[in-house]
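As agreed, record copied across for absentees:
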Amino acid sequence: MEYLALHGEQSLEDRLEILTDAAKYDVACTSSGVERRGNGRDMGNCAAGGICHSFSSDGRCISLLKILMTNECIYDCKYCQNRCSGDIPRATLTPEEICTLTTEFYRRNYIEGLFLSSGILQAPTFTMELIYRTVWLLRNRFRFNGYIHVKAIPGADPELIQRTGFLVDRMSVNLELPTAEGLRSLAPNKHRRAILAPMRQIQTGIRENKSDLVRYRNAPKFVGGGQATQMIVGATAESDWQILNVAESLYDKFGLKRVFYSAFVNVTGDRALPALPGGPPLLREHRLYQADWLLRFYGFRASELLDPKRPFFNVMLDPKEDWAVRHLEQFPVEIDRAPLEQLLRVPGIGVKSARRIAAARKSAKLSFTDLKRMGVVLKRALYFITCGGKMMYPVKLEEDYIVRNLTDVRDRVRFGSDGMTYRQMSLFDAEQFSLPVSAEEKLRSAVGQL
């Protein structure tokens, strides 16, 4: 093929190493929990609990083959290492090569699914056609029944996106930057409307497919795992309040399953990009993820957590703690009587522990010892709850007092001590994979045999 002419002298292993490394900054690649059992005829399956069983030290899944089809790109986004003006090694894989890699790695138990993205090669429709051909071949010629997550390319022919949606488990369209102004300044080739159009198409397709599945039991599923997106945090001047409101709007208006946040890493050194004297804004990314969970599972709204007068999260407290100390009029909460919605707003009480409390208190009075057994983090919760009308210790219900105790370094694990890092694993990095050297050699050998 013509688009491979420039890469004909590169080995498959060389191209694989380039393209797996090029994909590391796209974090929107987790398993969606799709369930599809093996059918005894095809290769692979999807387990309901999530197909990803191995994780790197920063909590990201490593059992998907995470790869770009090509790092060639006609766009010149200032933050992207794959931009057309970048001086980097280029590589491209054919659909057949990606299918072979996926199935052979699956047979060797290195991966359980595929995450496929791509630079824009020649044109959006041309690139989307290659992605569609890849997943069609995987499903029909290579008989791969495992998990597949692909990127929908903004500006591509909607018919290709529709066809692809019936073959994959999850699709995502990266919003990249939270506002149209940010896109204009750093990604002049990308437009907000072009990005939102496939999001709307996928949402409509999912909704219509659900009604089809009700009427026709054997109808094919359309993007059964839902859609996701990613926003870069810190490349432009948007506040946490703006970013969180964009995420809330995406959940409400486009039915997204996940919004991922990626701390900005300056990999191009472009003058238009902000300086990072303290490194990538990892703590800010962490706070946004915590707030995102409050939106999705705890019943919070963005307007409760931040506002124009307080546009950034408190670096010392997580978003739920910060909300609680600013709304002490709602506390303390009596564990034996508080409704589930109120329990979910107590720092230290998660969704599972709140449900356990609601179930257990029907038959018995609960003590602080019982709460600890149910998974409640008492060092956070004790300022906001009572059991039988009594607090665990005599504490003051005052904001300054509670904040001082919650932020005491002797009682808190400092951010980063769990090994979190923005650096994602390489397919050939044995240390990040937590594989012995012999396992890495087997992996290299598997590539060499293809």
Q: What stands out?
A: The radius of gyration is 24 Å. The chain has two domains: 9-314, 324-406.
